[in-house]
Amino acid sequence: MRLGDVVNEEFVDQPRPLDGIRVLAAEQMAALPFATQLLARLGAEVVKVEHPTIGDSGRGSVPFIEDPDGRRVGATFLRNNLNKRSVALDLKAAEGVALFLALAPKFDIVCENFKAGTADRLGIGYDAVRSVHPEVVYLSVSGFGNDPASPYMHRAAYAAIVEGMSGIYEYKRRPGRRPVANPVGALGDISSALFGVIGVLAALRHRDLTGRGQRIDIAMLDATMAMTDIVSNFYSMGIPDEVSSGVGIVETFEAGEGNFVLQIVREHHFEKVAELTGNRGWVTDDRFRNRAGWQEHFEDVIRPGIERWAADKTNREAVAILSAEGIAAGESNSSREIVEDEHVRVRHMLVEMPRDDGGGGGAILVPGNPIKMSRTPEGPETRVPWLGEHTDEVLAAELGLDETRLAELRAAGVTS
Questions:
Q1: Helix crossing, 187-210 with 220-227: angle to 10°?
Q2: What is the mean pLDDT of residues 179-208?
Q3: Which of 33, 39, 110, 133 could form a disulfide with 80 if both were Cys (CB 3.0 to 4.6 A apart)?
């Protein structure tokens, strides 16, 4: 799906769910930018506030392309900032803060994802914004939230930090191996983004009912704990890790070509897999009379038995056989395979952003909108904004600043 494409074109002139909702976001990296990009995909107007020279720190990530002025635009930024406008304001300058607070009442939602306490120190925290915009819905996303009772409130955090602290790394760790960091990408970021969006939508509905705004405080650790709920739940039931969980088999297997994933968490599924893979003897083997036995003899019996069966098959062939019998199985795809996957194509789950920086290669690919709605079109998407691309346009339209004043602000380094 290219940036300008539209899915469900018959509804392209219909209102989108968040049409008319305006978002002012002092944001960087992944968690909040993913959230506001999702809001934009649902129809909200998003104005992104960035530092005039550094910009969103995600612009400095690698790999990167270059914008028309030769500045780096990193992959983290490219994934999370479609459909936004960029306003460059120095929030460490008094004039920059004054401009932000002047803009705030023009927007339904104001949000930030600085380290806890930073927005307050800058002068754009909830109390400061609420003083000029009492009905504001204010979203904060930080590693550990803004409750001073938390011993971690002032720690910095990225996704891997809160993922590790959630317990999931140790829960999944195999004996004799180190825990693996970031096993599924930015779980800590995207889970926080999703809960932030849910909170914003609920707060907007509450404002419709009461006329009052409020603050949503999302801690990345809280969000990640919610996503990795088995850790604390199973611990309370005497199960400290996956190896001792007895939940069944959730593993990857090698085929003659490629690998596949198999999940067996029901006894009748185990029996079916035994039959399909030529291991019928497992059904009457006392070693496998319960799920604990599946775990105990997984490496010495079950894995070798299934992989012998799959040795003359591709992973796709093995999955087709298992899936046809109701077994939960899937290919362990390479990056190329998922990009070329037919499901991904028909579901419009990749958006192509052309690159013209001379770096070679094809379009930049960004995951599409996973929320499919029967009466709401997908697209057209707009490319990520270049740093400060819309500063003058927004400040002139929203605050009535003329060219002379805009030039003064640029000369002072307050904007760019």
A1: 100
A2: 94
A3: 33
- Cβ atoms of 111 and 27 closer than 8 Å: yes
Token representation of residue 413: 């380094």
% of the chain exceeding 90 in pLDDT = 86
Going by the DSSP 8-state scheme, the letter that residue 353 receives in this structure is: E
Q: State residue 244's pLDDT score.
A: 74
Helix 315-324 × helix 303-310 angle, to 10°: 110
CATH of domain 249-339: 3.30.1540.10
Which DSSP string do the residues of 125-161 spell out, in sequence order? SHHHHHHH-TT-EEEEEESS-S-TTSTTTT----HHH
Q: Could you tell me which CATH number the domain at 9-230+386-411 has?
A: 3.40.50.10540
Nearest-angstrom CA–CA distance, 173 and 161: 16
**Alpha carbon separation from 185 to 78, 240, 365 (Å, rounded):** 15, 24, 16
CB 307 within 8 A of CB 251: no
